Amino acid sequence: MKLVTKVCWLLLGALFIFSGLIKLNDPVGTALKLEEYFEVFAEDFGSFFLFFKDYARTMSIVLSSLEVVLGVALLLRWMLNKTLWVLLALLVFFGFLTFYSAAFNKVTDCGCFGDFIKLTPWQSFSKDVVLLGLWAVVFFNQRFLRYSFAKGQLGVMYITLASAVAIGIGVRALGHLPYFDFLPYKVGNNIGQLMKPREQARYQYVMERNGETKTFDQYPTDSTWKYKSMESLNPEASKPVITDFEVSDVEGNSYTQELLKGNKLVLIVQNTNKTDRERFKAINALMEAAGKSRRNIQSLTITSTSPPKFDSFRHDVNLPGPYYFADATVLKSMIRSNPGLMVLQDGVVKAKYHYHDIPDLYKIEKLF
Which pLDDT score, from 0 to 100, does residue 291 have? Predict the structure, then answer.
C-alpha cells in the first residue's frame, strides 16, 4: 500500500501542475470557457452569475495558478493535510461543473486541459472521478507520506516562488499570445487545406437477413439483405478540422476564398467595445506601409461587430483598407488578441501578433 500511495501522490500532484500550466498557457481561452459557464449558470440559476464575466480573465489566472501551487505543495508534502483539503474543495467544484455539463449537455468542452486535450463532458467527469480516487488513496494513507521536503520558512519560500512563477506565466500570456498554440489557426497551418477532409468518408453497413446480422464494407447489391445501421470508419479524418470559417463583405458576399489567396496582412477586431483603441495609431501606420510594399501585401480587417457600428468605429480610429465580417467565435480562435494581426500567404498562417507586439514592416516582408 505504501508504493500505491506514493504513486497516487505523484500522479495527483503532477496532473494538477500539468492542468494548471496548460490553462496558464492560454488564459484568454480559459477565461472564454469560464464566461461560457457563467452564461449557462445565469440562464439556469439567475443573472447574478453574469457579474463574474467581467472578471473571467483574472479568475482564469487565479484558478489556474492555484492548481499549479497546490500541485507543487502536494509534491513537496508542505502542510499536507491542509493542502489535501483544499485540493478536495477544488476537485468537488470541478466535479460539479463537469457533471452538470455532462448531465444537462450545457458546455460541450470543459477546458480541463485547454485546447491541448479535448474531452467530452462525460470524459471530463470521469477524469474528475479518477482524481478523487487518487485523492482518497493519498488522504487516507498520509502515514506513508510523513516526510516533508519543505518545512517551515523553506516551504513558504518554495510556495511563494511557485505562485510567482505561475502567475507570471499567465500574466505574460495574457499580455501577448499563448506560448504554444493548439488551435487550428496556428502558425504554419494552411487554413484552406484544413477546411477540407483529409480522407474520403468510408463506411461499414450492418445488414440483416433471416435473423443473421452481417457487416459489409460496401452496400450490398443483394436486395435480400435489409439495412440495419451504418457506421463511419474514419470519422475524424473524413471531417474537416475547420468547419466554420466564413468571411463575407458588408453585403453578405463570401470573401473566404479570396482571403486565402496572395499575401495578406489581416487585422482582427473581435469586438469594438473591448478593443484597445490606443494601439490603432501604430496599426494604421503598419497597414498603410504594407499596402505600399513591393511584396504586394493586401491589408484588410475582419470583425464580428455589426456593419453600422464598425463603420462608425473605423472612422473614429482612422482605420485604412477594406473590412469584412466573420463569426465572433471564429475570430477568438484565430487569435487571442483584440485587436490582433495575422499574416497569410495563400492561406498559410505565416505569423500572428498581439497588439502589444506590433511588428515593423520589414519583419512582415521577410515572411514572404
Answer: 87
